[in-house]
Amino acid sequence: MKRKKIIAGNWKMYKTAQEAETTIAEIANGINYNQQNDVWTATPFIYLQNLISRFGNTTIKFGAQNCYTKDEGAFTGEVSAKMLQSIHCSFVILGHSERRQYFFETDIIIHEKILAALNHNLLPVYCCGETLAQRNTKKHFEIVEQQIKEALYNLNADQISKIVIAYEPVWAIGTGVNATSEQAQEMHAYIRSLLQTQFGDAIADAIRILYGGSVKPNNATALFSQPDIDGGLIGGASLIAKDFLSIIESASE
Ligand code: PEP
Does ligand 1 come within 6 angstroms of the Cβ of 98? Predict the structure, then answer.
């Protein structure tokens, strides 16, 4: 099945409001509007409303990098999926390894966040991936299987069909060392086989699985040409319009 690729930027906690507007304007002006892929950007929460109202009519879709499990309540400092829906946000990254590492998010919590996002029509981008120690001890398949199982297996057919998965080996995030296209393809095929067993061929074939971890203009083509890699979740390189545009072009080749 031909799946539409997604090139998604994850800005993490970078850029001032002015820098955010300038970068999005550069991306919106530089995009080749004949290219057929989805272009998504997850900016810090506080810029979303402005960016959506200014650039929401371009091809770029805007999303958040996290949301809370509940719709509202006495949860100081949190932002809900309901709030994100009310400003016309399109997607939300959930379970990023930085959330797992620094904010102690578990697959159980992430599963609840996925349900909250789906309830408010936000497409969840569910991140999974092993650490270097886990890969070195050959536990990477087992770890990723457990993450997929705990966060996704009890979704119903309609819910799982709305999920985007990002395989992000922790050792490749922000390190400049990407998984080789063979390593990434091997894990993507494995994730798709898990989905096949649990949800059936049609659903597994349609789910988009992104690769994330030091995707740059010089390695994007090799990664995106793999049969089970349906685009990328891009951190560092998504902060620089020229690099992000070049990666978007690589997905069209
Ligand atoms: C990320 O933030 O999800 C990521 C993959 O970062 P980088 O591209 O910088 O490795």
Answer: no
